[in-house]
Amino acid sequence: MSRLISLYLRKLQCSIRNFDRWLQSIGSGQPPLGGIPALAGVSNLPLQTQPLPDYSSIFDGIFWAVPKRRRSIQRNRTRRRAIEKKIVPVTDIIPCSECGHPKRKEYLCR
After folding, report:
1. N or C: more exposed end of the chain, with fewer CB within 10 A?
2. Pairing relation of β-strands 93-95 and 102-104?
3. Mean pLDDT throughout 30-47?
4. 3-state SS string for the chain
């Protein structure tokens, strides 16, 4: 059991290091929070005296609107076959006065 936990912690450390590197590559080159000393041991990095860069804009596209639940087949069919979407039959067809072909009232004949 302890081996499984240590394996999980090593993977977690690796993921956090990769995330830190990614943040460094898009930021000012400084580590964003001075590393994670609780998981990585004692940090060799000096404390930052500069203000941290604003990373709020990098997460703008991550939290897009997504549905919480899958739409049921019944709801999909109801939406697709709504009364507003029914095809209305055309009733204003008349024969052309010149050639005799059927055409709509407001349209010109070919």
Report:
1. N
2. antiparallel
3. 53
4. CHHHHHHHHHHHHHHHHHHHHHHHHHCCCCCCCCCCHHHHCCCCCCCCCCCCCCCHHHHCCCCCCCCCCCCCHHHHHHHHCCHHHCCCCCCCEEECCCCCCEEECCCCCC
For 22, what's the count of Cα atoms within 13 Å in the CB-facing half-sphere? 8
pLDDT tens per residue across span 51-101:
766 766 666 666 667 788 999 999 999 999 998 888 888 899 999 988 999
29 dihedral zone (left: phi>0; alpha: psi -120 to 50; beta): left
CA angle 12, 15, 18 (to 5 degrees): 150
User: Do residues 86 and 80 lie in contact, with contact meaning Cβ atoms separated by under 8 Å?
Assistant: no
Question: Which of the two residues, 76 and 7, has the higher pLDDT score?
Answer: 76
pTM beyond 0.85, yes or no:
no
Question: What pLDDT does 73 receive?
Answer: 96
